Amino acid sequence: MLFCIFPENKWRLSLDIETKILSDLDEKLREITVIGFERPELIRVVSKVESDWSSEVAYSYHILFTFAHVFHMRKRKVLSDNEWIGLLRWMKSAFEQGTINEIWKSKIEMEKWFDPAFQEFIDKELIPLRKK
Fold first, then answer.
1. Which residue in 54, 55, 102, 132 is a FRET match for 108, CA 20 to 30 A apart?
2. pLDDT of amino acid 1
């Protein structure tokens, strides 16, 4: 209970609790995604839209949920500058070298699954980097 004694540590405790909650939530989303991979027929529970999703599109959702988690952890100042730079490089590389850029633009229903701040981050920070 040292955090109660030192007021400057109160913020850190709050951040630690928030980080734990967000990490737990992220783990739940990962579990849901894994179940969706293993049993695609269960996706209808959250979306009745018939789709021709390939495993590549489903995997892209999983990657994008991970990117969103990283983005929000950065916004909450949980990640150090060095950690953020490394993860940002990874995200940029994925959009430059992989098919996730095209999938984001054509297959992902971003307004249904991702918050506006994350959408803006992708559209302004990652997509413009794509080499023409």
1. 132
2. 42
* pLDDT per residue as tens digits for the range 53-78: 677 887 888 899 899 999 998 998 88
pLDDT tens digits, one per residue of 5-53? 555 555 566 767 777 777 787 788 778 877 877 777 777 787 776 666 6
Residue extents of the structural domains in the chain: 2-129
Q: How far apart are CA 129 and CA 33, in angstroms?
A: 28
For residue 87, which phi and psi values (nearest 5 degrees)? -70, -35
Whole-number Å distance between alpha carbons of 66 and 62:
6
pLDDT score for 99? 92
Give the residue-averaged pLDDT of 84-111: 91
Distance CA 39, CA 94 (A): 26
Residue 76: both structure tokens together: 């909450």
- Cα(129)–Cα(90) distance, rounded to whole angstroms? 13
How far is CA 110 from each of CA 17, 60, 76, rounded to the nearest angstrom?
Answer: 28, 12, 22
- Residue 34 contacts by C-beta under 8 Å, 6 or more apart in sequence? none
